[in-house]
Structures are given as structure tokens and as C-alpha cells.
Amino acid sequence: MGRDLALLIPEIAVLLAAVSALIAEILRRPRASLALAMLGLFVATGLTIRLVGTDTTVFGGSFRIDALSIWAKLILLPATMLSLLLASAEVRGTVREGTVYSLLCLATVGALILAGAGDMMFLVLGLLLTSLATFALVAYPDDDPATEAAMKYFVFGSVAGAVMIFGLTYWFGAAGSTMIADLEGTEAIPLAVIFGLVAVIVGLGYKASLVPFHFWVPDAYEGGPLSVAAFLSVVPKVGALFALTQVFRDLPSESGGPAVIAGLAVLSMTYGYLAALVQDNVVRLLAYSSIAQSGYFLLGIVALGESSFALPSIIFFAAAYAAMNLGAFAVIAAVGRTLNDFNGLGRAQPLVGVAMVLFLLSLVGIPPLAGFVGKFLLFAAAIHAQFTWLAVVAILNSVLALAVYMRIIVPMYRQEEVPHDAASIWIDIVTLTALLATVTIGLAAQFFFVKSMA
Amino acid sequence: MSDLVLPIVFPLLAAAAILLLRRGAAILALVGVALSLAASLKLLGAVASGDSATLLLPGLPDLPLRLTAEPLTALLSVVVAAVATCVLIYSVGYMKRESGLPRFFAVMSLFVAAMQALVLAGDWVLVLAAWELIGLCSYLLIGFWFQRPEAANAASRAFLYTRSADLGLYIAIFTLMGAAGTSEIAATLNVDGDTAVAAGLLLLLAIMGKSAQIPLQDWLMRAMAGPTPVSALLHSATLVAAGAILLIRVAPLLTPEVLLAIGLVGGITTVAAGLIALAERDLKRLLAASTASQYGLMLIAVGAGVPLAALLHLLAHAAIKSGLFLAAGEFQHARGGTALERLRGVGRVRPWTFFGFALAALALVGAPPLSGFFSKDAVIAAALSAPSVAWLAPLALAGTLLTGAYLARALRLLWHEREEGENENRSVAGARWMGLGVWALVIPAVFLGLTFGPIEALLGLPGPGDHGTTAMLFGLLAAAAGLALGWLVPASRLLGPFHPWAQSGLVIAGGLSFWIGRPAMAIAYGCQRLERGLYATVLSVGRGGFFIARGCGRVERGLYAVVLGTGRASLAVAHLVRVGDERRIDGLIFALVASVRGWGDRARVLQSGWIHHSLAISAVVTAVTLIILLSASLSF
């Protein structure tokens, strides 16, 4: 027990951060609330580094401390810190400001639980925790669009969650255990487990915003605070995708599961980019683009068990995605939510413009940025696992992606500039951090690979 | 031995076809039931030559659904199908003037299918499913004229009474499955000790509900508000019989204590229901009370440890009682009602039907050499041979006497000269179909006794022991005395001060309703609320299906749009190739963007912003995923 708790210290630290942030808010000390949350996350990150390389389970195998869950912490905790900074710039001075920080930390705990889940009950717990916290976050502005978005998100989330729990009862009934690992090595999956599997795909697919469970995404991103959108697009999504990885790692490969995941990947990538093409609102555009990016993650999940690249590629792309997507959202926070706001940005604020171009090109997957390495690894994993067609579809979609992101980049340099207010210093810090991560992760990884090849 | 499913499948298909086609309901139902009868007969033939077979159907994991063909189940299956066929033939005429025929015939077919499933089930899970379906169908059929308050009321009452008693069945089944570790009926019958006693008593509760034993008999009389063919089917071969059939099938399980309880319940019921029948003022209600009374006799036979006698009486009663009901239905058409006062003298108007009615009635009383003579004889012999003879024999004889009395009373009233201008005769539409149905049942009611020997040989169950002559003597005496009393003495004098009491339908009238009816209704009310919730759930699932259908429509339109978009895009690409040389390279990119944006617009169609549309699309894709995975796993 003591050992188990010791291994869970990072999660506990985040939880304590959430609680102390809430207490500070109750005491009407919003600044302290932010500081406590940041401190907790920082400490949690530091404590996690100690664990790198561990591969074990706690609580009788129901929670996993493995590469996935450790890297989830190393990626998501800094991402949450960046989201907190964005949020502090956005909600400063509003009532109940500290609840945002507290809820962000709570949702992060949920995402971390998802990423390490070794038991179906942890899947449910993580999903509910992230969902409940983010429902409230989306509704935070307390105006009509936010309420409508939160309502849609809530209805969609409840249905998906209910379906997931309902299906898991079949799984439990047929497999006789709630442990995911208990399916490992079984010859054929019992039919009832398939209901459970589909339900898990629905539940996690909703959280990871995969098509066709993505309908809440554009509304929630647009209606809620921008920082919450940035958070939603990274933390719960990566948590859910890692959870999906945990589930599919233990499935027999003849289950037909990979084929279904491949289908969802094609749907998500294609639909996401096609829908992004017609958006005039940059937040909605990025919402759809994040749906498409989720599809890329699935390439790695499809290859699980067949390719040794699969797991590293998922983790790596998660890191790259977190950096570049948060960066893009930070620029939007500084510039504005519509395409017209970006007119002439490249000339008015050259540094911000260059940063945005780099984020977007990284999202497309242009070398030598982080997104390129992540996608490259994902494609390699898919091809390695005999899913060449899927990789081809993904590459074709990258062309589509270029068209999508060009819609932001082109006006930045070709249109007359519009005046902008000066952005908060915190936003610039976030942009800069994300930019550094995007460039260095890409370069370092390529350096590393070149060395390992040689 | 996949033939085993055929008796169930044919009526089921008929029900589905009727609901889909909405025309030719009567013919479809008749064909379905006739095919079911043929399949049952084939099954009986196969079983008679010594085969018994079990068919395993994939059900829940580790709980396959079993169908069993052994002599008993095959025989009961034939009885169910045969009675149902006659009743349906009759219904064609009886229901001629009614609307809502598809509903009627579809539910009747479903009813037959459920009953066949119950009879052939070799597995408790299947028994439960069939049992519930029977309850549902009887509810729908009794309430067929749901616009009439008394019919709706009667349907609810029947449903609630039987449902609350079903609780016993559930607990009994789960007890048995828990004790035996399997859901196979044959295997669970080996349990003994306290488990067997508890399970037996709980089963008895369920059976008391379905077979309308005292004190749960009230619903049966009220169920007469439904169409007459429904009454015939309910009373002879299906709903009410389900209880007795179940009891006969679990006979090996019953311990002496349970047997005594069963015998006493049956005995009290046969006398009490007989008294009610004697006092009834309505022909159909009289027949209903008589049904409860006859099933009481069967319970006596089971309680005496001779299920064979109960089975024989069940067979004879099935033919006789359905014949009686069908005849009563024709009288009803002739006079526009079933009150005995209104039916006074109707026998002279429709002599052939009356003749059939009288024959069936005599058979039920036990007049030799009609079928009831043999079966009642067996029941009385069983009672005489039972360890608890002191209780069972007097009750059985009293029941026989009362049978004679109330049927003689009914016959006298039906034949009695009516007073001038009192009742008006009407012409009866569809009389030919109805007469056919009546006689198709009366003839077996007369001659069924001949088949009892072969049936005994086929089943190989122990007979009622060596009380042949005594039993016959007692039985004949009681029947004759009953007939004489019923014909000569008016019921009111026969019952004396008990007359109004019995007439009110509940022997210990207000008391029972108060002590047992109230708590039962309280439980039933709880059940009803649960049912409402379930209904709401079912409704919303239905609506969900509707949304899915709409979603499918949308997807189809979307696909069409995609195809269209692809065509347009290729045109646009051709266009681009042509203009590519003329323009600058960025122009090309923007043209590409514009053409792809056209696709994007199509994608936006899916994003309507209505959450139920979104959910419907999600549901469709989930279903497709499920199908892919299921088919993948099945193909491995």
C-alpha cells in the first residue's frame, strides 16, 4: 500500500493542487489559487521525472505506472501549466476565477487516470472526472453561447458515458473481471466483450473527439473560454487516446479492432480537415483540425502489437501535438478569433507571425518541426504493421491539412493589417515556450534518430 | 433435431407477417398455427418412436437456451396447436364485424408461439421468457376492446394479479438455478431438502396466479370482458393451462409437504370456484369460474402424486372448455350479451350449437363414455390413493358434484322457454365458421377418452393405483347427484344464505379482497410504476430507432452529395489542369482550395448543430462498428 501510494505521488500532488487552489478561491485569494495550482503541477512534474523508466502496476494491476502513464504526466502536466497561464490572462478579475484553476487541475487528474488505466473502472472514473470538470469550465463565461455549448457537451458526454458504462457491464459479465489485462492471451474474444469494446470506443472516442463522436467539439471550443478550448484540445484528448492505447495493447490482434480503429482514423482525419476548410472562425477551424489530429494518433494505436514503433510514436506525437496546438491557441488568444483578425499579422508583429507559421507548419507535418517527426513515426508504425493504405490516406490528408492551415497563413502576409491591442505578457510566455518546444523537440528528435541510424 | 423450433417459429412468423402486411390477417394466422400443428404432430411422431432430443440455442454466455422434445412436451405442444387452430377458425367468424383484426390475429399468433415455447422449453430462462410473453399477450387480448373501461380494467387486473404471483416463479427459478448450477430444467429437478420445499412453494404461488386458484381467482372472471375466442384460448390451452403444465413438468421436484399444500389449494379452489359458478348470472363468467374449479381438480391430482391424472384432465378440459366457450360466443352473438337471463331459451334457436354445448358440458361433468368421464375418474382415483385421502377425496367429490350442478343449471336456463317479447334473436354473421370451430372441439371432447390409453403408454408415468371401481362409482354418483340438483333445485335455494355471497364472486368476499387483494395491489402498483418506467424506456428506445432511421436517411443523402462532390471535383481538377498554364502557381493552390472547400460544405451538412442528429449519426457509426467487430469475431 505504501509503495503504491509512493508511486502515485504525482497524481496525488495534482489533486492536492486542485484542492488547495479551491480553498484559496474560497478565501478570495485568486492569485494564490493560481500560484498554488502552478506550484502543485510543477512539483508533480518534478516528482515524475524520478519515475522515468519504471514499468509496474499498483493496486493489484488496476493502475499502470508504465511508459505511457509516465510520459502522459510529463506531457500533460506542463501542458496544463501553460493552459493555466492562458486562463489567468483570460479570466483575471472575473468572479470565481480560482475555480477555473482548480477545475483545470481536477480535469488533469482525470486525464492522468485515463492514461494509466489498467482497469475498466479507472477508465470510467477518469472519463467522468475530466468530463464533469470540463462541463463546468465550458460553461464558465455564463453567457448564451457558453451555456448552449456546455449543454451540448453535457448531453453528448452523458450519453457517451452511459453507453460506455452500459457496454462495460457486458464486458464484465462475459470476461468476469474488470481488468483490461485479463483479455490478454485469450484466443477469441467472447461476443459480449465486443459490446464492451465498442462502448469503450464510444466513451473514449467522445473524449478524444474522434469522428463520429466529435459533434460537441466545435461548439464547446467556440463557446467556452479560449484557454479552456486549448486545454480541452490537449489534455483530456491525450488522456483518452492513451487510455485507448492501454486498452488496445492487451487485445488479441485478430479481434477486428484495428480495422475499426483504422476506419475511425480515416473518418476523423478526412472529416476533420474537410470541415475545417469552410470555417471562418479560427477557433472552430482549430477545433476541426484537432479532430483530424486525433485521427493521426489512431495510426499508432492500429499498429500496436505489430510494430515496435507504435508506442513511442504515440507518445512522441502527443508531446509534439501538445506543444504546437497550445502554441497555436496562445497566438489566437493574443490576436483574435476570426480569420480577419489575422490579416497582416506577419507584418504588424513579425515574431508572433513567425511563431504562428511554425506552429501551423508543424501541425501539417513539415520538417524539421516536431509535428513532422511525430507523424513520420506514426506513418512508419502503420506501414510496419501492414496498414500501408492507412498511411497513404493519412499522407493525402496532410495535403488537405496544408490547404486548411494556408487559410490562416496566407492572409497574415497578403492582407492589410488590422490594429491589435497588446497581449498579456503571460500569453507571450506561453507562445514562446510552445515555440521552443516545437522547434527543439523536432530538431532533437531528428538529431537523435540520425545518430541512432549512423 | 432443429425441427424443434418449428412449432414456435411458424406462429411467430405469422405474427410478424401480419404486423408487416396488415392484411389477410386471419389467413396468415391460420396458416401459421396450422403449420405449427403439423410440426408438433411430426415432433410427436418422432418422439413416440422413442427419440427424445434436446436442441441447444446460443443464448447468454454459459447459459444456452434449450428446447426439449420428450413425450410430455411434444404431446402438450400438439394440444396447444390443435386448440389454437380450432379457436382461430372460430375467430374468423366471431371477429368478422370487428376492426383492429391485424392486432388481434398477430397477438393470438404470438400467444401461440409463446405457449409453444413454454411447453417445449427445456430451460428455465426460456420458461421465464415465454411465461412473461404469455402474460403480455393475455393482457393485450383481454384488453382488446380497450375502449371499454371494463375491458381495460380487466386486462390490467389480470396482468397485475398474474404478475405479482410471477414473483414466486422468479425467485423459485433463481433458487433452483443457484442450487443446481445450471438452468436446465431436468437437471434442476434433482435438488432436494429445504431448497426443494422453498422452490416448490414459490412455484405454487406463481401457478396459483396463472391458474386462478383461490385466493387469486378474481381476475379470471373479470377477464371475460375480452373477446370470446380469447377466453376459449386462455382457459383451455394457454394462459390458465400454463400454470398446470408447469406444475406437471416439475412434479418430480415436489416434496410431500409441497404436495399437500398443492392438493389443499386445488381442493379449496375446486369447491369455492364451483360455488361461485353455481351462483353466476353470466354464462361466460360461469364458465370462467368452472375453469378455476377444474384446474383445482388438476391440482388435487398433482397433490395426490399422480400428475398423469392431472395431465389427462388437462387434455380433456382443453377440448371441452374451448368448445363450451366457442358455443357461448355464438349464443352471445345471437342475443347480444352473455347474461344468463338474456340467453334464456337460446338453445332452441340455435339447436346444433346447443347440442354441441350440451355434449361438452356432459363431458365435463363426467358422463360416460365421454372424455371427461375417464379423466375425472383418474383424478378421483388419484385422490383416493393419496396419503392425504381424508382431505383430498371429499374435496374432489364435492368439486365433481358442483360441476354437475352448475352445468345442469346452465343447460336448463339455456333450454328454458323464454317469455314472450323478452329477448330478441339476432342473425349471426359468420355462423358457419363459428359452428365449424365449435364442432371441431366438441368431437374430440367426446372421443378424446379413447386416446388416453396410448397416452399413458407413451408417457410411462405412474397411474393412479387400484381404485378403479370405487372411484368410478363415487364419481358417477357425485356427477349424477350434481346434475339432478342443478336441474331441479334453483341455485338460490341450493346455496341458501350463501347465495348472495357466492354471487359476489369471492367466497370470503370483502375479506379476501381486503386481506390479499390490497397488499397484492400495493405490490402490483409498485410493479406498475416500474412498468411505466420500462414503458418510457422502451418508448425512448423506439424513438432512438426512429432517429437512427432518420440518420440513415441523412447519411444516404450525404453519400449522394459525396458522389456528386467527387464528380464535381474531378471536373474542377480537369478545369484546373486546363487553366494551370495560364495562371500563377498560387492561383492553382487557391483553386484547389476552393474545390476542396466544396467538399467541406458537404461535410458541414452533417454538422447541423442539432444534438439529436449528432447523436443519431454517432449511434449509426457505433452500430456499424459493432457489426464489423461482431462479424470479424464470428469469422475467426
Characterization of the model:
The complex is a heterodimer of chains A (454) and B (636). By secondary structure, chain A is mainly α. Chain A has 2 domains: 1-252; 256-454, no CATH class. Chain A is built from 18 helices and 2 strands. Chain A has helices at residues 2-7, 9-26, 30-49, 67-91, 97-115, 120-138, 144-175, 191-207, 216-223, 226-249, 257-277, 282-302, 310-335, 345-348, 350-364, 370-384, 388-414, 425-453; strands spanning 56-58, 63-65. A two-stranded antiparallel sheet of chain A has the order 1-2. In chain A, a hairpin with a 4-residue loop joins strand 1 and strand 2. In chain A, helix 4 (67-91) runs parallel beside helix 13. The longest helix of chain A is centred in the middle third of the chain and has 32 residues, at 144-175. Chain A starts with a helix and ends with a helix. The mean pLDDT of chain A is 89. Chain B is mainly alpha-helical and 636 residues long. Chain B contains 27 helices and 2 strands. Chain B has helices spanning 6-21, 25-48, 71-94, 101-120, 124-142, 149-180, 185-188, 194-210, 218-222, 228-236, 239-249, 256-279, 283-303, 307-335, 340-343, 346-349, 351-365, 371-385, 389-415, 431-447, 452-459, 468-488, 491-495, 499-503, 509-580, 585-606, 611-635, and strands at residues 53-60, 63-69. Chain B has a two-stranded antiparallel sheet with strand order 1-2. In chain B, a hairpin with a 2-residue loop joins strand 1 and strand 2. The radius of gyration of chain B is 30 Å and the shape is elongated. Chain A binds chain B through residues 152, 155-156, 159-160, 163, 173-174, 188-192, 194-195, 197-198, 201-202, 206, 211-213, 215-216, 218-219, 254-257, 259-260, 263-264, 267, 271, 274-278, 400, 403, 406-407, and chain B through 61, 589, 592-593, 596-597, 599-604, 606-607, 609, 611, 614-615, 617-618, 620-622, 625-626, 628-634, 636.
